[in-house]
Structures
1.
Amino acid sequence: MKIQFLGTCAGIPSKMRNVSSLIIQMLHYENECWMIDCGEATQHQLLHSSMTLSKINKIFITHLHGDHIYGLPGLISSRSFQGATGELKLFGPKGIKDFIHTSLSISGTYIRYPLEVIEIDEGVLFSNHAFSFEAIKLEHGLTSFGFRIQEKDTPGSLNVEKLKSLGVTPGPIFKQIKEGKQITLKDGTVINGADFVGPLKKGKVLAIAGDTRQCNNVKRLAKNADIFIHEATFLDKDKHLAYEHYHSTAKEVALLAKKSNVKLLFLNHISSRYSENTRDLLQESEGVFSKTFIPNDLQTYIIKQNNEVTLK
Ligand SMILES: [Zn+2]
Ligand SMILES: [Zn+2]
């Protein structure tokens, strides 16, 4: 899985950080490429990366505050100018249809690819053989969702050496063995497929919170997540401001990650008051949860099956 942070600032951009947006690439799954939120000038940020607009096939909007959606009309329109023909699905809270329809129609923008805008509520937005994608309502000034992406478990690896020792060579029979079926070999030996397959590979959980203050649902969002991406708009000394403005502090999120058995924590949506020096935020979070990352704009993280992180 590849995660690229395009914008990590809260509310208004700073010189170092643009407003919210990130890209998730599900490398194993037909190159699914998703954008989460699309603040103003997100398309400019993309110009500094190898990602092209035509590759993005789904956009998910956590909530309708301007710092999460003002980049949409321009990006949708440029995707067409650049000749993209593949469908784009845009998921967002109620009101997103009006926003897109109004901005495209009054600016006379014609889109040459199929664009479907879907207003969402809590629940599973879609699922397929590989994962399910669920929206969970959080607590913010406007309706705000977190997204929980649960990869499905996959069968363990086949013990090829053990099979070879019984004279079983690769072929269609391997598929049946992997499915755990009972099979009679040519010499009459009956083997049980399950004896040759390693333990189930647990599917990963990726959880991404929209803007929120701490609430019960955010605990549900975070539970056992391998990768948890959450806003940390404030330091804990400004806790009262975080609560008043429906945001969270780095410490609150680190405590949540710890209690929820999270493996890796990424903090974003950093207030511009700290955006050029995130050392205090990082220290505050690391004091509670050591596996904390505060990405800069345009940083890409590649996360392997064993949760090993490489920064590109
Ligand atoms: Zn925001
Ligand atoms: Zn907001």
Note: The longest helix spans residues 96-106.
2.
Amino acid sequence: MQNPKVGFISLGCPKALVDSEQILTRVKSEGYLVAGNYQDADLVIVNTCGFIDAAVAESLESIGEALAENGKVIVTGCLGARRETILEQHPQVLAVTGPHDAEAVMQALHRHLPPPHRPFLDLIPPQGVKLTPGHYAYLKISEGCNHRCTFCIIPALRGDLVSRPLPEVMAEAERLAQAGVKELLVVSQDTSAYGVDMHYQNAVWRDQTRRTRFADLAQALGELGLWVRLHYVYPYPHVDQVIPLMAEGKILPYLDIPFQHASARILKLMKRPAAAEDVLNRIQAWRKQCPDLTLRSTFIVGFPGETEQEFEELLSFLREAQLDRVGCFAYSPVAGAAANALPDPAPEAVKQERLARFMHEQEAISAQRMQRRIGKVETVLVDETAAEGAVARGPGDAPDIDGLVFLDGATHLRPGDWARALIEETDEHDAWGRLV
Ligand code: SF4
């Protein structure tokens, strides 16, 4: 008899993707097969996102589709923490579990689709099942968050910060490296807070005692000889300690720091971590130590109560900070977020107008920053090859969110290959180069 088949839908952010990978690894290790479509599956697991209303709607729609096409559905992920919302619309789902709870998903799966008699452990690659291409992987170092930003409901969904022990994170990173991964994308809700919950306790990796904290973890990851990219870092003072690692080429000179705003009053209303730090001076000092540093950030415009003057303050911060890569959202209220109770919500037209002005300002800055790459030779990592050439990324380009380096004619390269490219042309996102 054929082994039972599980279908899987993975929605949401890289942290949810890591949850999906962990669940799929368990599913496969128990001998279930993974089906590529609804019809072949005996049951479907939907890993949902509940971050903003649009994500909730998409998740509910996916659950509905899986129910219509297959009929047997288990729901997990961030929206799973809002059980009633799901059951109200889709009472026929078999089970609902919260985020980061592979154990509960497996228990529900066992109840509704018993596993085959023998586990097929030997079918599982040692690095687990990855949903990203073989040459890069997300490495989740902690779960949850100790902050209470007023626009965010993640702590309510995922709880307070729980860091993974350093040897466990490093063992996963080594397995990924052995499996051919070339680039590790370090993710969490608050990467620079790593280890706070464990009181930075001592841990041993490669016969050396290290502390369970951000700088030690970055140092250890830097010893693997891979590209290591840090995401969701807040500008706490100890972030300064990783800049020398970047300058020495141990980890990528790249920091993804969601600043969200520049006005002290708005940051306070947002209850942002490290809001009081003198960001502009810090950026200057970092760039002095590591001139190749790429800074990525995200911002929210039209937050409740944001005045024209505070928005202008944000624009002048942009001009001063000269960030390389920037994303911006018009504030959108998330059900259950504390910010919804703040006075003076900005009218939609004002939010959209500020968003357009913000993007216009930043596009010019990004284009200028990109031009600094022209004439330089960069090590690039190939993502894809097409008929016309290869598509790669440089040290300043994170997958999916940043730009690409197009290498016309380099059709002999394969995904995961390293190459050296002379950058010849850029726009505000992407670069064009030739092999050297
Ligand atoms: S730092 Fe703020 S925005 Fe990020 S997960 Fe925590 S509460 Fe949410």
Note: Residues 348-371 form the longest helix (24 residues).
